[in-house]
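Bumping with the actual sequence this time:
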Amino acid sequence: MQLSNDWKDYKIIATGNGEKLEDWNGVKLLRPDPQVIWPSKTDLSKTKDLNGHYIRESTGGGRWISKSKMLDEWTINYKDLSFSIKPMGFKHTGLFPEQAINWDTMRGIIRQNKLNYSEPIKVLNLFAYTGGATVACAKEFAFVTHVDAAKGMIERAKINCSLSRIPDTSVRWILDDCKKFMQRELKRGKKYDAIILDPPSYGRGPDGSVFKLEDSLFELIKLATKLLSDKPLFVLLNSYTTGLGASVMQNILRLNLPTGDIKSYELCLPTEEKDIVMPCGNSALWRASI
């Protein structure tokens, strides 16, 4: 288990009854979470100064209900990184705080190795969403190719880069299906020193193609490894799919990548409740042998 416990602007106050109560830099939000299958000690919806509560609809989807004054958008900081937070559809806010442990890990690897490269380290960030990993790697002066199939998410990632003072020349923005982009990059002979994959459990590409993680992951990793340079640094794989365990992800990396150091772990966030941590998915990290 890896615990992202260095946050100052974010915390989980309480959990229970399928929900988690969070504080995002002074803004309190109550959101559903399928991992919270234990009861709540109190009615979290009656929390004092609760700003927003995401309610699931019986017909599917859901909506935000404003309690106290609800901001449309605000900024949250993690160390020297800054991100825009905005309550959006399907309970999202535009950021996954548990990924901070991976941001720190990637920054450390890049920082330790960048003097061994004559050019900026090239990072390919696939299914890059609003760019948490993009911001983290670019902050260490890596050159990041940010790929996502949703134009709106790329626009939000650009905002995050601007907030964190990332130069425009440090990121290449690609609106595309990740698999098709990798296939074209392979034909072009492009190579990357590090690759990040953060695929959704299920989704649709710009052309309406359906993506299901369990059916596609092995081939995605196989394709991604062909894009690694002669001096690869790492491959990081994230998953929020409940049935895809950390050991499964580790096996997939081991079967596709050269000999190296591989570890897998559950991502968790601390809570203000005694002895309770919030499970938030799994990651697997491959690093080239030194």
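The tokens above came from a reply further down the thread. The radius of gyration is 19 Å.
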